[in-house]
Amino acid sequence: IESSIPAPLRDTWKKFAATEFSTKEEFQREVVRHVETTLARSLYNCDELAAYSGAALAMRDKLIIDWNKTQQAHTLADQKRVYYLSLEFLMGRTLDNALLNRDIKDYAVEGVSELGFRMEDLIDQEHDAALGNGGLGRLAACFLDSLASLSYPAWGYGLRYRYGIFKQEIIDGYQVEVPDYWLDFNPWEFPRHDITVDIMFYGYVRRYTEDDGSTVNIWEGGEVVQALAYDVPIPGYGTSTTNNLRLWSSKPSTGEFDFQKFNSGDYESSVRDQQRAETISAVLYPNDNIDVGKELRLKQQYFWVAASLYDIVRRFKKSHRAWTEFPHQVAIQLNDTHPTLAIVELMRILVDKEHLDWDTAWNITTETFGYTNHTVLPEALEKWSVPLFQNLLPRHLQIIYDINLFFLQSVERRFPKDRELLSRVSIIEESNPQVIRMAYLAIIGSKKVNGVAELHSDLIKTTIFKDFVKIFGPDKFTNVTNGVTPRRWLHQANPQLSALIKEKLGSYDFLKDLSLLSGLEKFADDKSFQKEWMDIKFRNKQRLAKYIKDTTGISVNPSALFDIQVKRIHEYKRQQMNIFGVISRYLSLKAMTKEERAKQVPRVSIFGGKAAPGYWMAKTIIRLITAVSEVVNNDVDIGDLLKVVFIEDYNVSKAEFLCPASDLSEHISTAGTEASGTSNMKFVLNGGLIIGTCDGANIEITREIGEERIFLFGNLAEDVEDLRHAHRYGKTPMDPALKEVCDEIQKGTFGEPGVFAGLIHALTEGGDYYLVSDDFASYLSTHKLVDEAFKDTAAWAHNTIVAVSRMGFFTSDRAINEYADEIWNIDPVKVDG
Ligand code: RUG
């Protein structure tokens, strides 16, 4: 490699090579050095933000040394790598996580304290890296943590949005979106000015015939934008392995195109072009489980996929292997359909640029990709309009047509008389305009397709992808149940619980092997352990109560039952059912005598979550929650018996203190709609119980922890279709308790009823698509069981301890090992510390 230092000079180099700090004093020296030189501040001018910045930069230096070692070890090992392509990485904060993963938090806390700061205050200065909407993006972040912790040679590829998910403000009870500009100071990334890729859009395809008769397609004449790489180190836990997350940022290409315009005096238009280029990576689309089909989104997808593939191919080509070796060196996982264009782009590279024949290229491609499906909701399945696609990516459309043609021909050969089947499985839907069904393209171009929890993986096989199971056989479809990283979601979020578990189990090994939690079960009836366990829960609830008081002014009693539902606001997740349930509870309390009230278990109903800016019904649900909280919290008859709180701007760092503070959390989607859910796992892992439907990972959680430890209710997925049908034909009278709630809303108890008319309409004339009425009675009666169960503190403690002890399955390490063995076929690489 030309850029390496000549061999005779390497000893000098090595003498001065960077070294990592490994004691408190060395850490302090680095913090102070960064504050004084990198930030040009001094001990007379160092606030918490400067101290955080110094600590973060010191930590970054440490990570980057391991990052370099890891990349060298991976290059030397020359093994197969996995590339995880995700349009979202919801990382949250990094400093605390890095300190814990590198196991230096204790001396770092002491170190900053001797410099005059409290570590928690510094940690609090950090802006969340919020490059995601919800579960899908957070899953990608947990997977990166596990990939590094398990020493797999892996890279993440994503977009470096200038604006992450919007900040949510609640003004007069309504959601208001505020831009999240998070890059003012981001110490965790490295711009790689030497790593840029030119990406083309629009243009036309020129086709000509070579002397040997073969046809060549050249895509040219389009607009060129440059992708610039930013690298983010991902430290593993208990290992030196530090993997790379590469995020692409868009900027104007430095090609002649701009110069010509500039020189010819068309300054304004050249600036406009620059801005157009920068727009591509400017903002994360704020939709979760909704496809909107905007051209800029398609641009983002192609920009990111093309830059990533260029990078992957460049790395592969360095090894001078034959192209047929590509799938033995490279596995690419498509996180949802967002990166599906990678299949088409790899075909374009292999056929148009590397001149491989179609069949060879197709074999390589279909051996390389894996596709994870995260939803069966029709409104979330991506489809791109053919005319829009034709204009933006003309060559890719031709390739898609060819993929489709060869695929349909093969289907026709196997199922000769089934014309309906051909139209059902065609990548092109014959609508007006025609659209490209991205999920179908992802299935056809991948080796394996997986769902994210057992029920979900079964559902995709029997519903939306049924025809493909018939065509490809069942083995192409598999399940990998999601998981969460116990490093962030137990050790970091709940340090006291983690320390107590360590005390009982003898070491922190459970953070690497979560199945070791099973060792806790034998203490489930130990009274003093139960007390310590419940005391930690109480302190976590006190911390949340203080946060609620400080941010909303609402006083809540930490001894009350904390009932939390935090996730994106979506009709299928049924926050509306929760708030209707709260209203029903309020009405019952109001109807009770003083004596009866005295026997009730006090509740705090806590909600949090963002609504997509254009999702009017979700915004109405937020408004109902805030309206109910205004009434209930100020009702003197009710006092502490019921409080309703909406936590503004729910994000990863808020989840970190909400999960440890729940007694009960709600995972109450209409059966069959929530692919997995992952917060259900986080809440149980933190010693809370859940109320939930038989949906997503709730089912496996039940299997693991035992049905006596979960409050399941509601109809099953297999009954949903019939129930919806009955609603359509007006055969389902509304549940009486729900009717009472609707009447109360319509009476104006919670303000102008017109505001909520849409919500009521959805239950009535709207056909109650999410089956709130059908599940309402069992939802309410199950809440009664919760109240009863909560009164028995010893039994509650026992059940939460047993539940935690059986949560080993839900670590993302297990999920990643399954992907590695069954889909990617990759092995770990040891990195010397
Ligand atoms: O809604 C799903 C969750 O059920 C799941 O746990 C998560 C991770 O697999 O992905 C969520 N999801 C699905 N986010 N976006 C989609 C649709 O593209």
From TrEMBL:
Signal peptide: none annotated. Gene3D superfamilies: Glycogen Phosphorylase B (3.40.50.2000). Pfam families: Phosphorylase. SUPFAM superfamilies: UDP-Glycosyltransferase/glycogen phosphorylase. InterPro entries: Glycg_phsphrylas, Glyco_trans_35, Pyridoxal_P_attach_site. Keywords: Allosteric enzyme, Carbohydrate metabolism, Glycosyltransferase, Pyridoxal phosphate, Transferase. It catalyses: [(1->4)-alpha-D-glucosyl](n) + phosphate = [(1->4)-alpha-D-glucosyl](n-1) + alpha-D-glucose 1-phosphate. GO terms for biological process: glycogen catabolic process. The modification N6-(pyridoxal phosphate)lysine is found at residue 682. GO terms for molecular function: glycogen phosphorylase activity; pyridoxal phosphate binding. It is an enzyme of class 2 (transferase). Allosteric enzyme that catalyzes the rate-limiting step in glycogen catabolism, the phosphorolytic cleavage of glycogen to produce glucose-1-phosphate, and plays a central role in maintaining cellular and organismal glucose homeostasis. Belongs to the glycogen phosphorylase family. This is Alpha-1,4 glucan phosphorylase. The gene is GPH1.
